[in-house]
Design goal:
The complex is a heterodimer of chains A (270) and B (287). Chain A has helices spanning 2-31, 35-40, 52-60, 63-93, 98-110, 119-128, 134-157, 162-170, 175-186, 188-204, 207-212, 220-230, 235-269. Helix content of chain A is 79%, strand content 0%. The chains are: A mainly alpha (270), B mainly alpha (287). Chain B: Residues 65-275 form the ABC transmembrane type-1 domain.
């Protein structure tokens, strides 16, 4: 009885797994076909197969440039968010006053405001001071993403005893030294969570960068959108482009899976 | 740290400046412009509630509203049923359960824009091929009308987010002490009884979390909408976020777009505040 039900569960799992992976199979297998091959049969394996699609779409996507832009923007934004949010959370958590609870409430209320409500004045203001570029974008990501990050850091800081600060203070450490040498290292588990959540969100973001970045600084999603506009109905190229652009994400996922799952859980549950 | 100490303010300065520049100043400006005839650069006069009156008679906005509401209802139900189902499945002991976890969560790593493109291919080419091979008419001509556009968006969202919801349910399922389940087994409770009498009540908090996550995410969807259907055919599958963006950047009606965005803000904020209130009440009931 026991082994029987376990087999049934195993088979159900296998079938669902295949169903979930089937879209990936369709994309990858068709990306190796000629236009004729796709027209003849979408479901079959590529035969004959070609790698021309990859060569062409790699160039059309300006992949090296867009990958570099995505990396610079994501890494810079995430580092800035981690540093600024942990500092802010530290100041708020170690200060027990009405002012600091008011400020925390301000951070949390910012999370309620959807992007569309600020989109037009925001881009107009940054445009007026010639800041519609990747550095302006980093500032915007700090503004949009610091609330959740401050909130997460705040929760963890409350479990670090204030005696840690006090003993460092007695040894003559400045506030900045206490934070960087004593407190920040103790926050590393939640720093991983903050980093993961922001990496996923920023790497995949489309609408905000599409309003902010000049063409030379296009990230992978923006380049994909342009590419699709140019090659409508040329699925052989489009599918190779899709495959190229999801490879970095899948690799990151397989390497950092443990932390990603933890980060996503923390972000939702806390 | 003291309020008046310099270090308190220095630690807070970077985030407070960014928050002001990026969120609070623009939202106040936006609220103000929604009462003017602003064209994105200048305005000539105040128009009172004119933009708000216009939007309630704006067919595109009303259509987008009801389309979004329908989408949210269907996806909230499907995501929670499927997400919980997957969580129950992969927490059973069988070979490959960890691999399945990896597979189910994977689509969540890919951005909405690219997901929409992936499924555009599957709906227009894959479904077509399958439909012709199996002589199933309902698989033909997807994304060419409102119904298939709607279900297309639902399928993309379910494929993307089920794994995410699964992860949250797993976190709560793992908190159930094994002894309780074992004790119930010894007392002769069936698998169904154990699920309805023990598991279900004990993961109740997960429902609240997942309900509101799926609810507020559903209202805010834009990328998938853009790359899968681009609102078509004839704006019939345009959701609220997309209608607001298009009112601004396609129709260049900036003050109307701001008014729509403020209404959108009120809807989204009301959902979030409802969640906070509900959680407070539940926690109070528990104590």
């Amino acid at each position: 009885m026991k082994t029987k039900s376990r087999t049934v569960i195993g088979i159900v799992g296998l079938l669902l797994g295949i169903l979930w992976l089937f879209p990936f199979y369709l994309i990858v297998s068709n990306s190796f076909k000629t236009p004729k091959g796709i027209f003849a049969s979408v479901l079959s394996l590529p035969h004959p197969s070609t790698t021309d699609n990859y060569v062409n779409s790699f160039q059309a996507l300006h992949f090296i440039a867009s990958l570099t832009n995505s990396l610079i923007i994501t890494v810079c934004s995430v580092l800035v968010i981690i540093l600024a949010s942990s500092m802010a959370a530290y100041a708020l958590q170690r200060n027990h006053s009405k002012l600091s609870s008011g400020l925390l409430l301000l951070f949390i209320s910012a999370m309620l405001i959807p992007f569309q409500s600020v989109m037009i004045p925001l881009t107009a203001n940054f445009g007026a001071v010639h800041f519609l570029n990747m550095w302006g974008l980093v500032v915007m990501y700090l503004g949009f993403d610091c609330s959740l990050s401050v909130f997460l850091y705040q929760g963890t800081l409350s479990s670090i005893p204030i005696a840690m600060d006090e003993s460092a203070e007695l040894e003559g450490a400045s506030r900045w030294q206490i934070f960087t040498k004593v407190i920040f290292p103790m926050l590393s588990p939640i720093t991983v969570t903050v980093a993961i959540l922001n990496i996923i969100a920023i790497w995949n973001d489309y609408l905000l960068p599409s309003l902010v970045l000049p063409q030379a600084q296009y990230t992978i999603p923006l380049q994909m959108f342009n590419f699709f506009g140019e090659y409508t109905k040329q699925w052989h190229l489009a599918l190779a482009g899709i495959t190229i652009s999801i490879i970095p994400v899948i690799l990151f996922y397989l390497f950092a899976q443990k932390w990603i799952i933890k980060g996503v859980t923390d972000g939702a549950v806390k | 740290m003291k309020n008046r100490s310099l270090s308190f303010w220095l630690f807070l300065t970077p985030t407070l400046i960014a928050l002001a520049l990026v969120v609070f100043i623009p939202v106040i400006e936006g609220l103000f412009y929604s009462f003017t005839d602003w064209d994105g650069l200048t305005f000539t006069k105040m128009v009172g509630f004119q933009n708000y009156i216009t939007l309630f008679h704006d067919k595109a906005f009303i259509n987008a509203f009801w389309f979004t509401v329908g989408f949210v209802i269907v996806t909230v139900i499907m995501l929670n049923v499927i997400g919980l189902g997957l969580a129950l499945l992969v927490t059973q002991k069988f070979k490959g359960n960890n691999f399945l976890r990896t597979v189910f969560f994977m689509p969540n790593m890919i951005g909405g824009l690219i997901l929409g493109f992936i499924w555009q291919f599957i709906f227009t080419q894959g479904f077509q091929a399958l439909g012709n091979a199996l002589h199933m008419h309902w698989l033909l001509n997807w994304l060419t009308n409102e119904t298939t556009g709607f279900w297309g968006l639902v399928i993309v969202t379910v494929w993307q987010m089920s794994g995410y919801i699964m992860i949250i349910y797993i976190a709560y399922l793992q908190n159930i002490p094994n002894e309780i389940i074992e004790a119930a087994k010894i007392d002769g409770a069936s698998a169904w009884q154990r699920f309805t009498k023990i598991t279900f009540p004990m993961i109740a908090p997960a429902f609240t979390v997942c309900m509101f996550l799926t609810l507020s995410n559903g209202f805010k969807i834009y990328d998938q909408n853009l790359s899968l259907t681009n609102g078509g055919p004839y704006n019939s599958t345009q959701m609220l976020a997309m209608d607001i963006v298009n009112t601004a950047y396609n129709s260049a009606n900036f003050s109307l777009s701001e008014a729509k965005a403020i209404v959108f803000f009120v809807i989204v904020a009301a959902i979030s505040l409802l969640q906070v209130a509900y959680n407070r009440k539940r926690e109070a009931d528990l104590h």
